[in-house]
Amino acid sequence: MKSPQELLQMVADKSPCFTELRYHSRETQTVQVQNGLVKQIKSSVLSGVGIRVLIDGAWGFASTSLLTLPALEAALKQAIECGKSISQMKRAKVGKLPEVKLARGVFQLPGYEELRAMPLEKKLHAVREAESKARKASIQIQSANSSYQEIFEDKVTVTSDGASAASKLARSELRVNTVAEDHGQMSSAHQAVGRTGNWECLFNERSIDELSDITAKLSVDLLKAPHIPGGKHTVILSPSIVGLLAHEAIGHTVEADFVLSGSVAKDKIGQSIASPLITLCDSGLVPTAPHGGGDLEVDDEGVPTQVTKVIDQGILVSYLHNRESAALFGVAPTGNARAWLYHDEPLIRMRNTYIEPGNQSIEEIIASTENGYLIDVPLGGQADATGEFMFGAQKVTKIENGKLTTLYRGATISGQAFEVLSTADAVSKEFQLDLGSGYCGKGQPAKVDAGGPYIRVKTTIGGVQS
Amino acid sequence: MNTLKKQRTQLETSASELLKAALKSGMQQAEVVAVYSQASKISMEKQDFQLASTDEGYSIGLRVIHDGHQGFTSHNSLSAADLKWMAAKATEIARISEPNPYASIPKPQRIPDTAPTLGWDEALFQLSMPTQKEWALKLYQTVTSDKRFLLNEGALQFGADCVLVMNSLGIHQVHAGTSASWSLMGMARDGNILTSFDYFSRIARQARRLGDKIVADAIAFRDEIISDLVQGPSQSYRGVVAFSPRAVSEIFLSGLSSHLNGRSVLENQGHWKLQDIEKTVLNQKIRLEDQPWYADRFGYALFDREGTPTRPLSLIDQGVLRNFALDSYAAAGLKRPTTGHAAGSSTTLPSVGFHSLSLAGGETPWKTIIRDLSAAKENLLVVNRFSGQVDSTTGDFSGVAKGGHWWQHGERVYTVNETLISGNIFDTLGSGLVELSQETLLVNSSEDCPYLVADGISVTGR
User: How close, in Å, is residue B312 to chain A by CA atoms?
Assistant: First the structure.
């Protein structure tokens, strides 16, 4: 019996055009406990092969769930028909893909075997404990929920121009949510962590008990918190909020497909777009922060990933590329082509996106802030082609005369990313990737991570008006 | 069932085998959800056609229950070996799990004779590739006919599927459907002025007049974005704000749906309790129902994820809370009958979801409302889209008014950027509600909403 790699190679060798074959098997396990009851434990498998061809200057794609030579050959035929069909409609034909050193060999990130070997019962026990601790933290907690998910990815990528990479990695994430109530007043809070690696690396920064305690305490504290006044303010963004800014407001605007569509970053390479204190990267692996939620050694075009510096001391220096966009811009691909499932085609996606740390401590930055807010615990966010962003934050704390004072209810912050980053005047040495439980949506989901240091900027807070 | 007969037989055979295997392994109850789907898609990107693709496959999920212990597995293979693995794994999971008194599967019910079976159109199923390409070209050419429009992404997809739900209590529901769906995402640029991006998606299940619908949508989408090129500043104030049907969907229906979800009630996360049924909870102008039987909606369904027949459900009538949406889990917990609102797929356990929420309109046409309102106000914001958060616990909302229109003295003067709004959905739909427009619009083939005018909203301008 032939291995997936051998089968894929056989099809690639026979193809009359550029062909990329990707075998992808994904196993997912989920555990959820709510209010003392096991709500779900589930296990899912999804596997198959996606085949993309470049023929007559256009892309065609087809997939099959069967890993057999006849099924692969039939899918190749369909992909070629698709490519020929759209070629007649395409205005600008796709040219030759750039030559690049493609990945060959086996790429397995640490933790895969350990997490697989860990019994499901142990994971269920931990999730039960996390929920129970959060629920029992205060009589004001009226609902608690804890969930865990792990994804095992096995991929083989073969291209007709030389890639032949087998990769394995395991991603896991844990969430705790609580709802507190007091005399009809309600509030909620959540904490989440996501990593690539074994079980233990989930709790490198905060133990599972701490996650439960922090969540419960925040939901109770928010019960009495007032609404924040709206307006333009000095704010210190936490690493997770900086991660949102780096990913949503900068990262998406520098994805080369978005640039070619006319994003605000178009024609800005070499220009100053942020404070000189800002250096922003997107990376498959982050040397100083192992187990990032977006870790990746080889992308889905068979290109090895790298540390891609996007902003260097305030200057925009690179976009994020797949092979097609790299050819158009005359640069090397950056290893950003990713597909969510076997039947998805690769798109330009981020991996771990972060702003590099500075020299000050967070204590020093707070102490030197006369009047402002510390913004922490993200609630999600979106950004626009214009660079205009919106982030929700669950924890907003007033800073008065260099000291943290009043806690406010959650708020939304907004601004134009380049303008806001140009106001950065303090960057902490503390650094964290803190969005590993997040998924990026762009037609398909993608597992990503983001983070950075604490950064002080000026931006608009959407709050109440008198 | 037409030409998907072979696939239906395959689904039924596999589901029967899986149910048998689960019961044989000692489980008391079992449920299978299985799907066959096929699709062809033409995608656009970067102002051009990007990719043509086809996809076809099966997916199957098994839920088992024994004394309240529940297990679930899913796979995209129907091979005998994989079905055997699924039954064994689901049983193993159930044995590891702990009893949950609400874990249950529903008993069979008949789909009402009044339910319209509009999901299959042979003409759409047989649509030729040249016609598909012709309509994709029309979509592309229409939207890019104004050079200021920048197309970021777009797609036209044709598909057919067959969905089967079987359980050990006798449920056996099958439905085959066809669909065409199209979507666009883009923005506009004129010199240095760049608009926010916008998007829309639509679905149809019949081929009739499809080409006309696609072109009409493309024209409306293009022209709306181009109109956002006239931009200006906003000001901060607290007071009256108007919301477009789309903003009503994104803020108010999205916020309300979590509180009308029976699981939120059961789990003490909602604003309302079971005993609030038949009480006045919102302004008497509010009439909200869920409609599962409109074929031109993404949520069209004759039965839900658990095989329970769907039916229209009144949720709020003249401000009075009438019903919560329930699947069998929430129904068991709240000791009420399921309402056919189990959402999910063959790869997930059921949760509660809505089919197509419909908020009824008021008595005055929108043109009259906005004319009178803006004439009486020095400044007025009309929120077109919303990019932000609605707190699912408190109902507080805060976010950016995307493509917001600024009105002064009876005239729409320009589109605003970086303008934030905040408020609370219960306050707004209670004492803060001023007016609902007579007409309602279908938002992204999902929800029907009128324009809404409310007082007490905070606007933070640039």
Answer: 28
Name the phi and psi angles at A404, rounded to 5. -75, 130
What does DSSP assign to residue B253? I
Nearest-angstrom CA–CA distance, A83 and A17: 10
Give residue for tokens 């019996």.
A1
* pLDDT digits 0-9 by tens, B7-16: 999 999 999 9
The shortest CB-CB distance from A412 to any of B100, B268, B388 is to B388
What residues of B are in contact with residue A321 (Cβ under 8 Å)? none
Contact B399 A462 (CB under 8 A): yes
Question: Is the interface score ipTM higher than 0.90?
Answer: yes
Query: Collapsing DSSP states into helix, strand and coil, what is residue B158?
Result: strand
d(CA B38, CA A80): 18
Confidence band of A383 (pLDDT split at 50, 70, 90): confident
Determine the distance in angstroms separating the CA of A360 from the nearest CA of chain B, rounded to an integer: 31
CB–CB of A332/A303 below 8 Å? Answer: no
How many C-beta neighbours within 10 Å does residue B88 have? Answer: 14
CA distance B189 to B105: 54
Q: Is the dihedral of CA A72, A76, A79, A85 positive or negative?
A: negative
**Which amino acid belongs to residue A350?**
M
**CA B63, CA A190: separation in Å to the nearest integer?**
29
What the block records as the tokens of A133 is 């601790």
- Using DSSP's 3-state secondary structure scheme, residue A8 falls into helix
Determine how β-strand A432-433 pairs with β-strand B380-383. Answer: unpaired
| First-to-final CA distance of chain B | 57
Residue-wise pLDDT tens digits, A429-465:
999 999 999 899 888 999 999 999 999 999 999 877 7
Min Cα distance A411 → chain B (Å) is 7
**Contacts A143 to B, Cβ<8 Å:** 267-269
User: Phi-psi category of A302—alpha, beta or left, where left has phi over 0 and alpha has psi -120 to 50?
Assistant: left
pTM of the model: 0.94
SS3 B106: coil
Residue B51 has its nearest CB partner, among A61, A124, A411, at A61
Parallel, antiparallel or unpaired: strands A104-108 and B172-190: unpaired
Strands (E), A321-387: 337-338, 347-348, 352-355, 371-383
Structure-token pair, residue A407 = 């806690």
Q: How many CB atoms lie within 10 A of CB A241?
A: 30
